[in-house]
Predict the 3D structure of the following.
Amino acid sequence: MSFNIGLSGLYAANKALNVTGNNIANVATTGFKSSRAEFADQYSNSIRGTSAGKNVVGTGVKTAAVSQMFTPGNINGTGQALDMAIDGNGFFVMNDNGSKIYTRAGAFYSDKDGYVVSSSGANLQGYAVDANGKIIQGVLTNLQIDTSNLTPNPTGRISENVNLNSTATAPTQTPFDPTNTGTYNYTFNTDVYDSQGNAHQLNQYFVKDATSNSWTMYTTIDGRNPADPTSTTPLSNKLPFKSDGTLDTASMTEGPVAGGMTIAANKTFTLSNWIPAQKNAAGVWGANGATANVAGVNLDMLGTTQYNAASATTAKSQDGFATGELSGLTIDESGNMFANFTNGQDKVIGQVAIANFANLQGLTPIGGTNWKESYASGVPVIGAPDTGTLGQITGGALEDSNVDLTGELVNLIKAQSNYQANAKTISTESTLMQTIIQMT
């Protein structure tokens, strides 16, 4: 019996050496989870299935389990756009030729068709976007990077915060002439875009009226009348102010303004008849073949003030942009994949999905730092990162192996000592047997 006990100890020590060796071998494997060998003692049972009582002697040791430790590894930045690490619970969901596999190794690449894949060619799963750029939750698909140019967006809304100096005086030179700086007090330009992504310059000039709380705003696009590119006559609108320096919207009458922009119900200005233009080879201005935003261009100047400070534009925004080429990719904590374009715009092209399991120890390792679902693991809970118990995504980074190399080297020494001790048990038993044989 002692031979068997010692032999079981040798098997156990060898198993511990194998587990430790595997951990050490994968100390630099991205997303690797270390394992530990768990052992249990053995006892012989009687024919009725009960032990022999308080004098029973164990029959050795057996391997109860080899459990994986799903503790997180360190997350280190790589600077690679498609590298991802999960900070918290969860696994990346991969489609391996129709079979779902799960991994913590987030080194992904783009294949020739733009699909996001692992080094083995498995497709990263996530949620696609609809035509409006909204994430389609709940429907897993192979994530793909759209490399096509971003469609231009004609300007539909402009918002400006401007202060006009209350101490300014009406210009002594009249009439208004954009080429004569002595005929206006303040001016600035804003880029606006047509349907083809062509940039045009919206010119705004502000002239203090003889009336203390009134200004006249003159507007051109590319120095031309927006509705008639052959004309340089600007549009003209009044900007009345209250005594506290804020815009007096109550005195602005809703509706069309002769020679100016229409005043909308909310007291913003609407430019509904802009004809995008350009100068031809002969130097003659005419329509460029593009169109303006079909709903017109809304100019919000409700934040305009008249205070005793230098005339200045404090904030400005507009929603149009030119076409853009894909220049990069970024991924946020929620797994949203943003395509970055040369025109400064960002566009959501998909969202990474991650999965978690009720019993991680029930997952079946299949190599390549991948696992498969099993009956013991339970079915996966798949969702968007940073929701429920699912972790966050760290873009441009990878999760290191969670192997504690120092601890593993100590385990190696312990396993070696255990092996030697069990070998000594067998050697001692052999010596005793030889002694008995010699006595006979």
